[in-house]
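Okay, can you check this protein?
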Amino acid sequence: MRGLLLCLSALIGASAWPDCGEVDVTAAGPFGEMSQMNVTTEGGTVIFVLHPPLPAKTPYPVMVFSHGTTGEFAMYQNAIERYVSHGFVVIFPHVKGPVEDVSPLTLDPHGGFTMKGVEYATSANSDKSSPLYRSLDPQNLVLAGHSMGASATILAAVKLPAGVAKAAIAQHPGICGPWGPPPCLGPGPLCNTWMPADFEVVSAKMPVLLTTATNDGAFWPAPKTAEHELGCFHKSTDSSASKASTAFAQFSAAACAEDGKGGRFNRKWPNGGHDCPMKNPSVETPWVLVAAKLYAQMGGAAKSRCHAMLWGAGTGSLQKDPSVEQAVINPPANSSTAFTVVV
């Protein structure tokens, strides 16, 4: 009887979230406009909370999104609005605060600020004085991040106990060590790098997606950065134990070209190459959203459309997008064999 009740509960919970075949993951979702709360933790860290309408009829799954060096929320606003509209509360932690983090000297590639975001989601959901009280589902949490924040995502996932995060998505992380940017022998406190062993630890706990672009010149002249990141991915998945449920996607230079539109009235930034996640819209956003939906909303269901889009090779799969120049897809162990696509 208890098993039947658990199954019924799972079915009821799953019905709150539309599958990827029922919504357009390249457009705004059905959960309304984004609202923002700014929170300062007891330790003085500023966290932005981007959320759908509250209170929630069904607790929203959580995405902790970690920004890159000199990053700010406005750089990722378009993508985050998409995630929120599809039923996610996005926790956007700062290393220190929105002003301080713009400085190139404010660094935390090892994931301390990512961990603060995870901790906040858990505490806010159980805090009766919080507007987020019982509106979050911290049992369905995904990690995502760009550049420094992508390295932080990997290293925070290493530290988290198995089961805390459902998936990790690293967009253009620092190249794997022991040498990494800024130029250093590491891993050290300021090295934006990670080790293949770290990736292996994470992939044993949860699915992992790594993205890059052919014209990413952040760490090596293009296309060397993408080549090195693919090499890091292969080093990290060279054993069967760490290969399943890992994916690599490299987007074309045309899809990630600089368009000169990154910025606002008082600050400009690039949005091509390494900064492709900042484009409006970005070809990378559907990959992040589909992975997040699959594991935080669909429970990883192998028969879901989200699963077919992320792990499958059929019509409509993400790797069939013409913006994808190269993809290495290692499906979950219960799926079909791995495949590589080169366009």
